[in-house]
Amino acid sequence: MPESILIDTDPGIDDFMAILFALKSPELDVLALTTVFGNHYIEITTRNALVTLELAGRDDIPVARGAYAPLVRAYHGPPTSVHGHDGLGDAGFTTEPESEAAHTRAAQFIVEAVMSRPGKITLVPLGPLTNIAMALKLEPRLVQATKRVVLMGGVAFAPGNVSPVAEANIHNDPEAAAVVLGANWDVVMVGLDVTTRVVMPPRYIGELGESGSIYGKLVARVVPHYQAYHSQAYGNDGALYTHDPSAIAYLIRPELFTTVRHPVRVDTWSGYGMGQIIVDRSSKWYPGVETTICADVDAAGVLELFRERITR
Ligand code: RIB
Ligand code: CA
């Protein structure tokens, strides 16, 4: 039986890649996409979710629009240098989607979906955790009714990507992250500790584009802006970090990842540490809930899995 998943997403170039990866993986049944602000305003991330599904030939999958801003802070607008002015790398995906978002908003959608099938649905957040926190506030029984949460976000032992210590999805709504990581449910954190070790070189991307697969062509088309950003920001010569697709890889092949379990807290103070994941390695200071943290990864294995699925 495939694992039923709800992807909460802010497409976003790597969200686009992750959604295609999930759709091509028979181990996963993508029930719906819920959208959140982050890589762009909510209107644009919702449009991009609809566009992604239409390009993938899967507009049968519902999309529910979610939060336009963090729980208690302001949203400061899209990082266009990373994901382009349209959030999809300005790659010419300009046709407006024919499909529309559902009438139900994301948090309510998540509650209804999970509570209708207790113990069966996995949440896969790939953006700020606002919708998930709101869903928990609407329905606290989600904690027991959700199978597990596998999220891309955070960093435990490596440097951050929006500050010395914080990762973007957590930094974009630290209060929401504190709610989600503080709840007593099964959370797996696929963060920068592993996603920055899974590096897609330009040749690999070129081969996806020339593979003859439509999904491979879509990936090769969406990434050039992201490659340019990586070159400028990290001196990577066009090689990409594999953020959101790594969470999908964990769902399919957890044995590619080395994990540790510790209690964590999120720094919600508005200082230099905002959005930092504070790991209690001794399990002494914050007894109770432990988060599964991906600490290491078989990067070649993840790249091979992604290639195999996208070009299949
Ligand atoms: O830090 C990486 C995360 O933030 C990914 O989800 C990516 O889409 C970016 O916005
Ligand atoms: Ca994302």
Structural features, described:
The chain has 312 residues and is an alpha/beta fold. It starts with a strand and ends with a helix. It has helices at 13-23, 42-55, 80-83, 106-116, 130-138, 142-145, 168-171, 174-182, 192-195, 202-209, 214-222, 224-234, 244-252, 299-311, and strands at residues 3-9, 28-35, 63-64, 121-125, 148-152, 187-190, 199-200, 240-241, 257-262, 264-266, 277-279, 291-297. It has one domain (3-311): Ribonucleoside hydrolase-like (Inosine-uridine Nucleoside N-ribohydrolase, Chain A). The chain has an eight-stranded mixed β-sheet, sandwiched between helices. The radius of gyration is 18 Å and the shape is globular. 38% of the residues lie in helices and 17% in strands. It contains 14 helices and twelve strands. Helix 1 (13-23) packs parallel to helix 13, helix 4 (106-116) packs across helix 5 and helix 10 (202-209) packs across helix 11 (214-222). Helix 1 (13-23) links the parallel strand 1 (3-9) and strand 2 (28-35). The mean pLDDT is 98. Residues 12, 14-15, 38-39, 126-127, 152, 161, 167-169, 243-244 line the site of alpha-D-ribofuranose (RIB). Calcium ion is lined by residues 10, 12, 14-15, 39, 126-127, 244.
